[in-house]
């Protein structure tokens, strides 16, 4: 039997789970629309940004870090390769591991994509109040941790050996 607000329940459209889903859908739509001229989606930009922040990573590293399936990473990486943002190379020690790194075009693309993300962040800041953005972000992290557990470690599972700079 359905619960109706008149009976003391909360309408589906007023429940926090629905409101978060709607906010997510709205944000993803606006971000993807803004990123369309770059030829990438917000999911693809997120993976490219992770590589920009942490250096070359494997597809498995990206899958763990973003808590998405390896198949989703493969699809996104293929699209990023197609637009020239990503290059593959073998790991210098673990030859079976393929590392993904940004190309020069990818570095420029991530910077352009960040401008789109910043615009949306400004809209969010105006909506929740700029003085509440940091606490709002902490609350979102707490929700993610409550549902998914702690955030995965930062960086890659297959660190590269340090280069001997004396030979350069």
Keywords:
168 residues, mainly alpha, Arc Repressor Mutant, subunit A, 3-stranded antiparallel sheet, 6 helices, 7% strand, globular
Explain this structure to me?
- The protein is mainly alpha-helical and 168 residues long.
- The chain has a domain at 32-148: Orthogonal Bundle (Arc Repressor Mutant, subunit A), CATH 1.10.10.10.
- The chain has helices spanning 16-35, 42-54, 59-66, 70-82, 104-128, 133-148; strands spanning 57-58, 86-90, 98-102.
- The protein has a 3-stranded antiparallel sheet with strand order 1-3-2.
- Helix 1 (16-35) crosses helix 5, helix 2 packs across helix 5 and helix 3 (59-66) crosses helix 4 (70-82).
- The model has no long low-confidence stretch (mean pLDDT 89).
CATH class of the domain at 32-148: Mainly Alpha
Q: How large is the count of helical segments?
A: 6
- CATH superfamily of the domain at 32-148, called what? Winged helix-like DNA-binding domain superfamily/Winged helix DNA-binding domain
Largest beta sheet: strand ordering: 1-3-2
Largest beta-sheet characterization: 3 strands, antiparallel
Give start-end ranges of low-pLDDT stretches.
none
Succession of helices and strands:
HHEHHEEHH
Quote the average pLDDT: 89
Percent range of helical residues: 55-70%
Which quaternary structure do these chains form? Answer: single chain
Report the end-to-end length measured between terminal Cα atoms: 73 Å
Name the beta content range: 5-15%
Structural class, by secondary structure, is: mainly alpha
Got a strand count?
3
